[in-house]
Design goal:
Largest sheet: none
Helix content: 55-70%
Number of domains: 1
Order of helices and strands: HHHH
Distance between the termini: 49 Å
Number of helices: 4
Shape: elongated
Length: 153
């Protein structure tokens, strides 16, 4: 088992993972909206494309985390790269709204595939507990051995 890193190293690693995961998405939103408006999409259609992206991420977030655990992080990250490459190709070359929507949905699938392997690099929030006894099994003041509260008296 690995030991827990010191708090400053854990915080630094967590911030680095967060920045590397969310900064590219934040930097691409404005140019992507401009690109989609140049392709003739209305703001409602652009919102539909982003909804396809978001709903795909929501639908695939948990299953891809399990897939990362089952198949390994490298394979899932490679699949995320392939999905992102296909998505960027569709968005870059697509002119029809269905092509752009499909590209955004594939971009969401790639995003969900990449998040499963990325977050284990971040440190856990609290140290793991011992599995010997649950936290509620410790004796508390005012409790008898059977777990019922004792009557004052």
């Amino acid at each position: 088992m690995s030991t827990m890193p010191d708090p400053s190293a854990a915080r630094r690693r967590y911030v680095t993972v967060c920045v590397l995961f969310w900064l590219p998405l934040g930097l691409t939103i404005a140019p992507l909206i401009l690109l989609l408006t140049e392709r003739g999409l209305t703001l409602a259609a652009i919102a539909g494309c982003f909804a396809a992206h978001s709903l795909t991420v929501v639908a695939l977030e948990l299953p891809t985390g399990g897939l990362s655990d089952a198949l390994g992080r490298r394979g899932v990250l490679a699949a995320a790269g392939v999905a992102n490459l296909a998505a960027l190709t569709l968005v870059a070359l697509g002119t029809a709204p269905w092509q752009l929507g499909l590209g955004m949905a594939l971009m969401g699938a790639g995003r969900a595939l990449s998040s499963g392997p990325a977050w284990p690099a971040a440190p856990p929030r609290s140290p793991p507990r011992s599995r010997a006894a649950p936290c509620w099994a410790a004796p508390c003041p005012g409790c008898s051995d059977s777990g019922r509260t004792s009557e004052p008296g």
